[in-house]
Write a structure and sequence with these properties.
Blueprint lengths: L2 H12 L7 E4 L3 H12 L1 H4 L3 E4 L2 H9 L13 E6 L3 E2 L5 E2 L6 H10 E9 L13 E5 L4 H11 L2 E6 L15 E7 L5 H5 L7 E4 L1 E2 L5 E6 L2 E6 L2
Helix pairs in contact: 1-2
């Protein structure tokens, strides 16, 4: 997304925030702009409380002087904002790049509203093979889950995500990340159900979770919602 589109989306998203709300924020550049936009309204910001699925965003919130609280103390939040890699007309989304989808889903489920932010290039009628699908697994299930994915779907390859030293990336829960490239994208409800497979912590498909989206591009701002 071009930088001006990110900021445009953030400015529009900030209008959704009301005083005294508990706001959840994901990660990425658009969310960073949103945090800065909310902090700029000093009087409103003093009434807000924040939680985040991203360490980087949480650090930014603290640096901006905003009130960050522990999500574990909450049963619900008012609005959760996050970006995505791809979203469709039903607001199903893939959120694979950051590898923090388990935390993101927890906050999204706690939220009364879950609003996706992005540029128009992220939009597609149907989710497709242009984006990876990521699965967080317990490390000893890497081989089993990789093999089961290949047997269950039309998979091009499954790769364990590694760092610059070629070591397996470990999430905060000690999980490994499997990046899956499909030859044909599966039916969404079937793909969503793999979360029940033993060894899987969660996956990066956000199926029937978002309530709205704000997309920005050359033609301006588009608001999407589930009819």
């Amino acid at each position: 997304m071009q930088q001006n589109y990110k900021k445009q989306a953030a400015i529009e998203a900030a209008k959704k925030v009301k005083p005294h709300q508990i706001i959840g924020l994901g990660g990425g550049g658009t969310i960073a702009y949103l945090a800065e936009e909310l902090a700029a309204d000093i009087h409103k910001a003093q009434t807000l409380r924040f939680v985040s699925s991203s360490v980087e965003t949480e650090n930014l919130l603290v640096d901006l002087g905003l009130n960050v609280i522990d999500a574990a103390t909450l049963t619900s939040i008012d609005v959760y904002f996050d970006g995505c890699d791809q979203l469709d007309k039903e607001l199903n989304a893939l959120k694979s790049g950051g590898g923090i989808h388990t935390y993101e889903k927890a906050l999204a489920c706690m939220a009364k509203e879950f609003i996706l932010l992005g540029d128009v290039e992220k939009y597609t009628d149907q989710l497709n093979i242009n984006c990876l699908f990521t699965v967080e697994v317990v490390p000893y299930a890497i081989g089993f889950i990789s093999d089961t994915l290949k047997k269950s779907f039309d998979v091009l390859h499954v790769v364990v995500r590694t760092d610059t030293d070629k070591k397996n990336i470990s999430t905060k829960r000690g999980g490994a990340l499997l990046d899956v490239k499909f030859q044909n994208f599966p039916e969404l409800s079937a793909l969503n159900q793999i979360k029940i497979w033993p060894g899987i912590i969660d996956h990066s498909l956000f199926y029937k979770m978002a309530t709205a989206a704000i997309l920005c591009g050359p033609e301006g701002i588009n608001h999407l919602s589930i009819s």
